[in-house]
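During the no-cost extension, the postdoctoral fellow (Dr. R.K.) reprocessed legacy sequence entries with the updated structure-token encoder. One reprocessed record is reproduced below for audit purposes.
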Amino acid sequence: MKKSALYLLVLCLSSALQAQDITTMWPYKYSDFRDGTVYFANKRTLSAPVNVHLLKSSLHYLDNGQIREVTTSDIVLVRIDEDQYYMRNNQLMRVLSGDSTGFVAELVLADFDALTESGGAYGSSSNVQATRKLSSLEIGGINITNHMELKSNKDSGSLLPLDTKYFIVTPDAVYPATKRGISSQLSDDKKDAFNRFLKKNKVNWRRPETLQVLLDFFNE
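Re-encoded structure tokens follow.
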């Protein structure tokens, strides 16, 4: 009980500290680039000011005042202050609890589609229209890569809503943290075991602090 309460407190504090307006000019997780360490598959490391770009949950870093993107496929782990990110499905997923052998993950993306959604015109599909609108947007860290210029104009962009999803990550798979999302990837015998597990363990799928118990199922 105390462990769950502490976990919830840490989660709330983390969210509060990172609360900020996400805009097209500053579509980043953090209010500025922070000292971080990147661990690569070839055992190499990079220490630099970094930030998580929320268009695709990719990693950007500063190089002499210019914003660069780290090649996603090379990343294993990123540490930014107290936060840890593992690369899964070519996206940075923040660890809420657990470790590399199994963890509850948070994925945050900026909803650029909210700016581009509209019905198609003159025979064009809405998807085509959305792609054109997205490509015409000035996106911080993509079209503008000078850090000081971007920072000074961070509040001038359009506000972006955030899409936050949770996952259960094991060494072999990434499961959406929903009952259906997990069940759909399990064999029939494991589905039965999963249903029995849920009867014994309460999970509120809308509260990420209750998802930690699911790691016990995958560790058994």
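Residues 2-17 form the longest helix (16 residues). Strands lie at 34-40, 45-53, 58-63, 66-69, 75-80, 83-88, 91-99, 102-110, 162-169, 174-176. The remaining legacy entries will be reprocessed before the final report is submitted.
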